[in-house]
Amino acid sequence: MSKGAKIALVGGAGVLVLVLVAGTVVALSLGQGSDETVASAADDEDRDEDDAQGDDDAGGENDGAPSAPSDGESEVFEGSGDELVELDPPHADPQILTVEGNGDGMVSVTVVSEDGDEVGHASSLRGEEGGTRTIYNHRGYDHEITGLDVRTSNDSWTLTIEPLDSLDPWTDPDEPLEGSGRDVVLIDWDTSGVELEMEHDGTSNFIVWGGNPDDGVTDLLANEIGEVDMGEQLSDGTTLLEIDADGDWTLTPA
């Protein structure tokens, strides 16, 4: 996988400037060599060349993956086979992860903390077209996430990481919300006293979590197999729904 690198760029060129003013010659000497910084003045011209380029590599090298998302930005990682995707810098806030594979094989992603420990399973993909979207590092977790461990039987895969506020919210409780497979839904209306009707036409797991990432509180609203037609009360202040499904689903506030 190609990995982004931060490279400090320092330009330099040998220059000799002679200025004649009222018979007085002032010489300004600039350090020479493509890797040197500019010397400060003539009285510093005896400075050792190694000191002159002391800040040349200040930016350093980053041999990890592109930076984790921040300020509404997203990051895309592409690879093939099993791989540990390093996040530099790490992050401690919730993130949205979309996983895509190029075939019908399995792509499984596990979250890795600063201690190198696996602290949660982020997502699995089994050949679904369009990929799957999940959330990780929430429910009150306080881990600093340094990597995503990819295990796959697909030839290649793509991971997209986005901040939570990048999602388009569900804004109208009078309109049912329809979707398919795994997804994350932001709620932008008052859930006080609202029962959520849930329908699912798949044959495997249908799991729905509701909660608020700000306080870490979560409610298990559904944990069923196969077709589902049920309702569950939403807690006051619910702003987020996590859905794990293998079929089409419909959510209707009642």
Layout of secondary structure:
Blueprint: E1 16-21, E2 24-29, H1 49-52, E3 75-79, E4 83-91, E5 95-101, E6 106-113, E7 118-126, E8 132-136, E9 145-152, E10 157-163, E11 177-180, E12 183-186, E13 195-200, E14 205-212, E15 217-225, E16 228-233, E17 240-245, E18 248-253
List keywords for this structure.
mainly beta; Jelly Rolls; four-stranded antiparallel sheet; 1 helix; disordered N terminus
How would you describe what is shown here?
Helix content is 2%, strand content 47%. It is built from one helix and 18 strands. The chain has 254 residues and is an all-beta fold. The strands form five sheets. It has a four-stranded antiparallel beta sheet, with no helix packed on it. The protein has a four-stranded antiparallel beta sheet with strand order 4-9-6-7, with no helix packed on it. Strands 11-18-13-16 form a four-stranded antiparallel beta sheet, with no helix packed on it. The radius of gyration is 27 Å and the shape is globular. A hairpin with a 4-residue loop joins strand 14 (205-212) and strand 15 (217-225). It has three domains: 1-63, no CATH class; 75-165, Jelly Rolls, CATH 2.60.120; 167-253, Jelly Rolls. It has one helix at residues 49-52; strands at 16-21, 24-29, 75-79, 83-91, 95-101, 106-113, 118-126, 132-136, 145-152, 157-163, 177-180, 183-186, 195-200, 205-212, 217-225, 228-233, 240-245, 248-253.
